[in-house]
Structure formats: structure tokens, C-alpha cells
Write a structure and sequence with these properties.
By secondary structure, this protein is of the alpha/beta class. The protein is 39% helix and 22% strand. The strands form 2 sheets. Strands 1-10-7-4-2-3 form a 6-stranded parallel sheet, sandwiched between helices. Strands 8-5-6-9 form a 4-stranded mixed sheet, with helices on both faces. Helix 5 (77-88) packs parallel to helix 6 (114-120). The structure holds iron/sulfur cluster (SF4).
């Protein structure tokens, strides 16, 4: 359970960076909040995330009428490219991330970078959903988490075999199996209403 002092510190630190933090006891509550916030008439892009898969958010939003662009539902590579591009200009974007710091950083490690591109610019509103396992004390710890925990687990999930899977840490490989080409730190937002961080009080994703 995330203790109240950490919650308060995160709320304060992220607010200074124009990012609103909300805490939820379970994924279902976070899912309901997302449905309340996003009008049915708006388009929604989805970033690849195990947490969002667990939430089943693409299906929930599509079935109530939102136009959803989720590349993980693509039928083939061409379709995937189209969905990724459409998601970049959607009204809302929902994503996970790999680590956040209590200091207020959001740290992402990505393969092609479509997820971080949409988080940074394009969609008018962004919601980032994480489990409490993604909370780190400092920026440095968040970067270490992204490289040494998230990247190897995501590589394995996607069927790649870079050396970090065996080594259980990043060795900055130049392997053909390399999965991470973009290490992106979001330090804040210019528009204070654009980005929201939803923290669920359970462990989810990598
Ligand atoms: S650079 Fe290579 S070793 Fe490091 S996390 Fe990425 S894939 Fe793994």
C-alpha cells in the first residue's frame, strides 16, 4: 500500500510540474474514472501496456462508442503502423509507463517510440496508469528500473532475446535483439490540464 506521506509528496511534486496525480485502490476504480473523464464522442489512442491490457480499456471504450486506436489489436504490420499514426493525433491518449519518481519524473523506455511521441505531443489529454510497483524514490532509481527491470521483461514478453534477459540488467547491448532505442524522461507539462497520472494501489505490468 502506498503510504500517505508518499502520496502527499507525489501529489505536491507532480503538481509543481503541471501533472495531476490521483490514487485508486483498484484497477476497476481507475477504469471507471477514465470512462467518466473521456466523452464518448472523442477518439482515444492506446499505448502498449500490460496494465491497460489487464484493465481491458480498449474493449470497454470501443464497446460504448469511442473510436479507439490500439496498435496491439492490429491484424498485420501495415494496420499496426496506421493505428500508431492515428493514435498520435487522437483527442485522448492512455498509456502505462515504466517508472515514476516521487520527485515527479515519468521515465519511459521504448522500442519504436510511438508511445512516448504521443505522450509528449499530439493528443490533447493524456492519462498514464501505473501500479504502485512503478514508484521509485529518485530519477536515478526510475531510470535503473526502466533499464534493468522493464526492458528485459518487455523484451521477453515480445519474444526478443537481448542479453539483459540472461544478465538481468542492461548491458547497453548492440544486439539485433535490442528492444530499447528511446529512454525518455517526462519532467513536466507546459499545459497544466493535459496530463494525469493514475496510481493504482496494486502491482501491475513491468
Ligand atoms: S540496451 Fe540491450 S541490454 Fe540494455 S535493456 Fe536494451 S535490450 Fe536490454
Amino acid at each position: 500500500m502506498v503510504n500517505q506521506n508518499i502520496k502527499n509528496e507525489m501529489i505536491r511534486n507532480f503538481k509543481r510540474r503541471n501533472i495531476e496525480v490521483s490514487f485508486f485502490t483498484c484497477l476497476k476504480d481507475a477504469c471507471e474514472k477514465i470512462q467518466q473523464l473521456i466523452p464518448i464522442s472523442k477518439t482515444v489512442g492506446i499505448g502498449n501496456s500490460q496494465t491497460l491490457k489487464d484493465m481491458d480499456i480498449s474493449k470497454i471504450l470501443s464497446s460504448r462508442g469511442n473510436k479507439v486506436f490500439d496498435k496491439t489489436l492490429a491484424q498485420n504490420k501495415e494496420d499496426s503502423i496506421k493505428l500508431k499514426k492515428k493514435a498520435l493525433l487522437s483527442n485522448w491518449y492512455i498509456s502505462g509507463t515504466n517508472a515514476v519518481s516521487i520527485e515527479g519524473h515519468i521515465v519511459n523506455i521504448d522500442h519504436s517510440g510511438n508511445r512516448v511521441a504521443a505522450m509528449i505531443y499530439g493528443p490533447d489529454n493524456v492519462i498514464i496508469v501505473i501500479g504502485k510497483n512503478k514508484i521509485c524514490n529518485t530519477l536515478d532509481e526510475a531510470i535503473q528500473r526502466a533499464k534493468n527491470i522493464s526492458a528485459p521483461l518487455n523484451a521477453k514478453r515480445a519474444g526478443y532475446n537481448p542479453p539483459c534477459i540472461k544478465e538481468k540488467r542492461c548491458v547497453d547491448c548492440k544486439s539485433k535483439e535490442r528492444v530499447c532505442f528511446n529512454l525518455v524522461i517526462i519532467e513536466g507539462q507546459h499545459d497544466k490540464n493535459r496530463m494525469k497520472l493514475f496510481v493504482v494501489d496494486e502491482d501491475f505490468g513491468f
